[in-house]
Specification:
This protein is mainly α. It contains four helices and no strands. Helix 2 packs antiparallel against helix 3 and helix 3 runs antiparallel to helix 4. 7% of the residues are buried.
């Protein structure tokens, strides 16, 4: 079985011959990747536990947006960024105590 993943950051590091532990001139990329993974898992766990209120999700989602925006090697139209930004806008429209459908 073959998996086709769109991983531009990983491909760039492989082409440059840089292991993930090497610090870039743009900051420590491995820290940003770890933050994205951690926030994604946290949000996923919250959703699986049935947490749907804005105040339960918004802070982690906004942090995820901020970390993705700091990752300058990702293209501006990267699908992950656009989806997360969509959900931040969606939660912005909800009142504090409202829940996602």
């Amino acid at each position: 079985r073959r998996y086709y993943l769109d991983c531009p950051a990983a491909l760039q590091r492989i082409q440059e011959g840089k292991p993930i532990t090497v610090k870039d001139n743009q900051g420590n990329i491995s820290k940003s990747i770890a933050d994205v993974i951690s926030l994604y898992i946290t949000l996923s766990d919250k959703l699986q536990m049935g947490m749907r209120a804005k105040d339960e999700l918004y802070t982690d989602l906004k942090c995820l947006t901020d970390v993705l925006d700091r990752m300058s090697h990702l293209p501006p139209d990267f699908e992950g960024k656009t989806k997360v930004n969509h959900w931040v806008v969606e939660l912005d429209t909800l009142f504090r105590c409202r829940h996602l459908g």
